[in-house]
Design goal:
This protein has helices at 2-14, 16-51, 58-72, 76-86, 92-102, 107-118, 120-144, 173-212, 214-219, 221-231, 233-243, 249-258, 260-270, 277-305, 309-314, 316-322, 327-343. The chain is an all-alpha fold.
Length: 350
């Protein structure tokens, strides 16, 4: 680990102008796009968390978490879910299922950023497939997981409610607002740090490829853009849409649902429960595969029905030319291989 860090530090110095430019661009994207969309949601999540303590219904908390996750996106949803778990309102089984369901991107990325590139109708279709894939991921986990006596965080009895913490039911919005803003601001700085580090690593990787394999890099712009998006979804997706004339809609939806390693690391910043990073990565990969397959089917149906011009222009002409029909199948096989490898990891006892 020490040797790798020294190599990265030397590469940052070697490509100092490029990495500094990438860091400045990432900071601009954060200030103009990420922070305006995410900061209010984190503040609202903190306020709603204080008022939720007066609600004894377990189902209400679960429905709130999923709805809030869909509206706010990651990592605000992960931060709110961790707050529920720390207050011992949900079981570990529910914790992981909701982690699958609420680990989504902000809808403003689809309806704002992507819509400016691919059209609003296509963006809304992808967003619905993105949400549906998240629900399916959580449902699959719930079906194939098993209950154990130690699965409850709050009680040995599944579904048992937890008494309200004393001294915390008299919070008003005005009294809770300063703490919510402070916590959201510190969380935003952590997110900015992860984004900058991710963008600098991607920039180093790109420049190394250009120096070592200039011809191959020029001929494989699509592959490099996909790798960028898998590392950092914001800049990578914009590079993908700019470098390739026709990008398959299912590929866009799959990459956005996976979220990239940057969002994966952002979620890990707030998840303090005993969850292995590889397990969280597996959830994100399953979400990406399911959402991509859903988007492929929906866009194919819409193309045949001729109901959405923007989706038609985006999908079928490029699906059959830029990527083979069996690619969603191979993506599913790849995820199953990762899952099999994860099953061999040592388990942590609750």
């Amino acid at each position: 680990m020490l040797g790798l860090c020294m190599i990265i530090a030397l590469l940052i110095l070697l490509f100092s102008s490029q990495t500094m430019a990438a860091a400045r661009l990432t900071a601009q994207v954060f200030v103009h796009s990420v922070m305006p969309a995410l900061f209010p949601m984190m503040v609202l999540g903190g306020l709603m968390g204080t008022k939720m303590q007066a609600t004894q219904q377990r189902t209400n908390k679960i429905v709130f978490q999923i709805t809030f996750g869909f509206l706010a996106g990651s990592p605000a949803s992960a931060r709110q879910l961790e707050a529920l778990a720390q207050r011992q309102y949900i079981s570990k089984r529910e914790y992981r299922a909701m982690l699958c369901m609420s680990g989504v991107m902000s809808p403003m990325f689809f309806t704002g950023t992507l819509a400016s590139k691919i059209g609003s109708r296509a963006a809304w279709v992808m967003l619905l497939c993105h949400w549906t894939g998240a629900l399916l991921t959580g449902a699959l986990f719930w079906v194939f997981s098993y209950k154990s006596r130690s699965s409850a965080l709050a009680s040995k009895q599944s579904g048992a409610s937890v008494p309200i913490a004393p001294g915390r039911t008299d919070h008003t919005i005005l009294s809770a607002l300063p703490l919510a803003v402070s916590n959201a601001a510190s969380a935003q700085l952590s997110i900015l740090g992860v984004m900058i580090v991710s963008s600098m690593l991607v920039t180093i990787f790109q420049n190394v490829l250009i120096r070592l394999f200039p011809i191959w890099t020029e001929q494989n712009a699509l592959l490099i853009s996909i790798g960028w998006a898998m590392m950092e979804i914001g800049g990578g997706m914009m590079a993908l849409l700019d470098s390739v004339p026709m990008v398959p809609s299912w590929l866009i939806c799959a990459l956005c649902s996976f979220g990239g390693l940057s969002i994966w690391m952002q979620n890990l910043l707030f998840l303090k429960q005993e969850i292995h990073p590889a397990e969280l990565l597996g959830y994100r990969m399953l979400h990406g595969v399911l959402a991509g397959i859903l988007c492929y089917g929906v866009s194919s149906w819409l193309t045949k029905a001729g109901g959405v011009k923007e989706v038609t222009a985006l999908t079928m002409a490029s699906v059959h030319s830029a990527a083979p029909d069996r690619l969603p199948f191979w993506l599913a096989v790849f995820w199953l291989i990762i899952l099999a490898c994860y099953q061999r990891l040592p388990r942590r006892r609750a």
